[in-house]
Amino acid sequence: MGFATSSSTTCMLFLLLLLLPLSAVAQTNNGRVDVGASLTATNDASPWLSPSGDFAFGFHQHGNADGFLVSIWFDKIPGETKTLAWYAFGNGSPVLAPLGSRIQLTAEDGLVLRNPSGEQLWKSDITLDEAGYAVMNDTGNFAIRSRNSDMLWQSFDQPTDTLLPTQIMEKNGRLFSRQSENNFSQGRFQLRLQNDGNLVLGAVNLPTNLVYDGPYYSTGTYDTANESNSGDRLIFDEAGGVYVLRKNRERVYLQTGAILPTPAADFYQRATLDFDGVFAQYYYPKRSAGENRNWSTVWSIPDNICS
Ligand SMILES: *[C@@H]1O[C@H](CO)[C@@H](O)[C@H](O)[C@H]1NC(C)=O
Ligand SMILES: *[C@@H]1O[C@H](CO)[C@@H](O)[C@H](O)[C@H]1NC(C)=O
Ligand SMILES: *[C@@H]1O[C@H](CO)[C@@H](O)[C@H](O)[C@H]1NC(C)=O
Ligand SMILES: *[C@@H]1O[C@H](CO)[C@@H](O)[C@H](O)[C@H]1NC(C)=O
Predict the structure, then answer these.
(1) pTM (2 d.p.)
(2) Which residue's CA is the nearest one to ligand 1's atom 9?
(3) In this protein, which residues make up the domain named Bulb-type lectin (predicted)?
(4) pLDDT of 136-159, one tens digit each?
């Protein structure tokens, strides 16, 4: 056993130890976030990543906004301005976190966001039990679970302007548009699965949030004479189908003839209510030779926004 051997072994071990924490940061523990973990809003903060790295939860500075949005975004899509799948929202406006704010997963309240002086800006509402851990899922859903793994809160239940594959919207659920591309305040349009099962797109009266009569699009999925024909949920499935599921299990697809290129797993997908009132399904190739990668439209409704 020469001295040289053992010192090079020591050296290798030392290198390994240096490398380990870096790979641990990149992987974030299978998307798992433990109680007590926190993120701070800075320009170079690393987010909580899903296992594949496709989705990230954290602070994102968007446009000229004076602060950071607590949000979920498609992390592998290049570009400084990320496509957001979700952002924290309250009272008609996005939650803007000033530089140095901190979000922490707590047992009592789930996620709690505080500004640098410690004032609470936002929290996830969990009531059934204490949080045990959270997961940034590869589907783009951020879920807070109890120690027994019961679901306590999930971003999929609080959609903003976007739905993702595997996301379901129940009756009375809604999407609302932004003011503009870079202004995340609540805009003029709403997609709502009404209590009667009808899915409607309409303009909203902002202070009251009531939809003006005469939606400019509706699936007509309601039947007051026979409930089983009425819509029950809006589903975005993994294969890229977007449909109202009637109580009788029949599907009413929103896409008219247009279909996603296959295999669906090769594309990121989202369905977004854009600020101009158009609801559209988009796809983006996960892998391909760089240049012309962009979000492309699969279908959009209404067909002609001008009419
Ligand atoms: C992620 O979501 C999928 C689909 O809903 C689910 O089957 C899986 O259990 C989730 N993973 C975790 C770690 O929660
Ligand atoms: C976004 O739009 C709202 C409503 O028009 C306005 O009050 C707010 O100041 C705008 N925010 C930014 C950052 O421009
Ligand atoms: C309701 O409609 C379904 C078809 O979706 C039909 O099979 C059923 O008989 C109807 N029920 C009544 C009470 O009319
Ligand atoms: C991607 O699409 C946006 C919006 O349609 C467009 O402004 C932009 O120029 C496109 N980028 C590329 C590289 O095609």
Answers:
(1) 0.86
(2) 137
(3) 33-157
(4) 999 999 999 999 999 999 999 999
